[in-house]
């Protein structure tokens, strides 16, 4: 097989560090030589020895993003390779942090790769790190802080100027302490190697950045910082449930935790109503704790773990949002809801009847609202709220006339009809009643504060006067 494109790694250092085989190949070849960039120590020395080449440096000036640069380089190389065999030389090793080579591999099988020294070996030597401890190699121009494993050594390439360094600093500071030391290594493994260590918040203050600069971020050891990492929480729950853990946590089951999940959920709702961010953080954490406990029980019993939970909801969100993750177009939030319901119906095809999916464990008012929304989809509703209001009056009259053994059912009919009125007026019966409960508590508490003696010693007229006074104070 005659390869049309031979990719050569130029290594990271000067000419004396270039393997003899690669040096000989570049010196003796009759094939056209293309360089991703001429900004490399070896290139200037080879030029002095008479090497001829075509550089893609001018392509960088034509594009605002590296993606465009790499696409044009790859397209040009493939076009030239159709005419004759060519050599494509890149810094370092062709298979380490070299996007153009990866794109070539994806588009042609006629590729021969001759390695050079990557920057990794001299980089690890420069910062004194053994890679067996675990490390990540990431690209600063496509950096995602959520991908960073803060317990591992982190190498971030392409930190070529202060703008990139500034963006990188801001993202790293989301998960690393501001004073966390980072090391910048430029031209690793060459006679021009330069190593600087600074606090993270000064990362973009360094003025010696270049396309040969890599940032090293050491692992986090501060337990306070590690406690913000999801993996830490997972380990904590596993230890609580494991051997030598907490007897209470070890005894819990899915059934025993049900009441705690309900309690924590309502405490979260209260924090939301109070608009208290710190309290919301705490209560969301308590809800998450319940989720993690259930997931750990699932793992202990050999049925599922938290990754299954996360995978399930991720799959569902992608599947039910084809207008975001697919090619479906929507014009409004109503279209989104309709799509959601259609996709959900397809997923729940085992349900025979419309109300099969009504949640049995939900609070009664919320369940009533869920029922009413479902039946409305098939037109089982009044045209306006007037019909629902008339139904309330009808149910009140029936309660008045009902014998004792039927009063509970008739009272429930009134509540159900009132929830239906709320649906027409876009008011939540559950929220409305909770708001009234809170209002009553405030006013009654104020009554007790205004009274000059216990309320049990006051007449109904006196209590009514205090109630009206508390009401007027709240309204004023």
Describe the protein's topology:
Elements: E1 5-9, H1 20-28, E2 33-35, H2 41-48, E3 54-55, H3 57-60, H4 66-81, E4 86-90, H5 99-107, E5 111-114, H6 120-127, E6 135-139, E7 153-157, H7 162-172, E8 181-186, E9 194-199, E10 213-217, H8 223-226, H9 230-241, H10 247-251, H11 258-274, H12 277-300, H13 306-319, H14 322-325, H15 333-347, H16 364-376, H17 385-401, H18 407-424, H19 429-450, H20 460-475
State the end-to-end distance. 90 Å
- Spatially, the strands of the biggest sheet line up as 3-2-4-1-5
Largest sheet: 5 strands, parallel
Structural class: alpha/beta
Order of SSEs, N→C? Answer: EHEHEHHEHEHEEHEEEHHHHHHHHHHHHH
Give Rg in angstroms. 34 Å
- Spans of at least 5 consecutive residues whose pLDDT stays below 50 are none
The helix count comes to 20
Write down the overall mean pLDDT: 90
Name the beta content range: 5-15%
Oligomer: single chain
Number of strands: 10
Shape: elongated
- Which percent range fits the helix content? 40-55%
